[in-house]
Specification:
The longest helix has 29 residues, at 125-153. The protein contains 10 helices and no strands. By secondary structure, the chain is mainly alpha-helical. The protein is elongated. Helix 5 (67-78) runs parallel beside helix 8, helix 6 (90-106) packs parallel to helix 9 (162-178) and helix 6 packs across helix 10.
Length: 213
């Protein structure tokens, strides 16, 4: 059974005991606080998490089998909800999808968590697989559907590779949020970046006869 399908991830009791939302929230908040303070996931012990959350270790183990399973729930809890798409144009929908990534990069807590997720990709493939299944893959499908609708509506050239195009839109924002830890305090993630990325790419991707947005 994968972490994405684990009892803690699905909301079902992990060890046959009723779950307390307040206790789980305290544990998750404890992990987030430690990550925000710069503690790497590798240095987070269940004992340290329990002490920060003000609960006993047994309380954590009744709900999660270990750090990996707990961290998956932490990642899910810290992720912003999917944005509501305006539906006015392909361009506006793409901007709406990118903007939460930019905002997450300037928030200390979300930025610390994002860096930890990518740092654990190699050392803990299960965490990455669960994060990809619950966060990355659904958003990728959403953006690819937007791009396909753009081709159908004539906003986007029909000869472009949609999968590659998705990566071209997302990559600049990921570079600035993940690979530049100082970006949150510099103009790299300033307001208007989402619009700039989308408009720059669309400038060369619209059909020749299509009017500019």
């Amino acid at each position: 059974m994968s972490l994405a399908d684990s009892p803690a991830a699905s909301g079902a009791p992990a060890r046959g005991r009723p779950r307390s939302e307040a206790v789980e929230r305290a544990v998750i908040e404890g992990v987030l606080k430690l990550l925000e303070d710069g503690v790497p996931l590798a240095d987070l012990s269940i004992e340290r998490i329990a002490r920060t959350a003000g609960v006993g270790k047994a309380t954590i183990y009744r709900r999660w089998s270990g750090k990996e399973e707990l961290f998956v729930d932490v990642v899910r809890a810290a992720e912003p909800p999917d944005p509501e798409l305006p539906g006015t144009s392909m361009r506006d929908d793409l901007v709406a999808l990118l903007e939460p990534l930019r905002q997450r990069g300037v928030m200390t807590r979300s930025s610390a968590l994002l860096h930890n997720v990518f740092a654990q990709m190699k050392s803990s493939p299960k965490i990455w697989a669960a994060y990809h299944a619950s966060v990355v893959a659904p958003r990728r499908r959403m953006q690819i559907e937007i791009l396909r609708r753009g081709q159908q509506s004539g906003e986007l050239r029909e000869d472009v590779d949609i999968d590659l195009l998705h990566d071209l839109f997302v990559a600049p924002m990921l570079v600035r949020t993940v690979m530049r830890p100082q970006a949150a305090t510099e103009p790299d993630l300033s307001e208007g970046l989402s619009e700039q990325i989308v408009d720059t790419l669309l400038e060369g991707l619209r059909p020749v006869s299509s009017p500019s947005a």
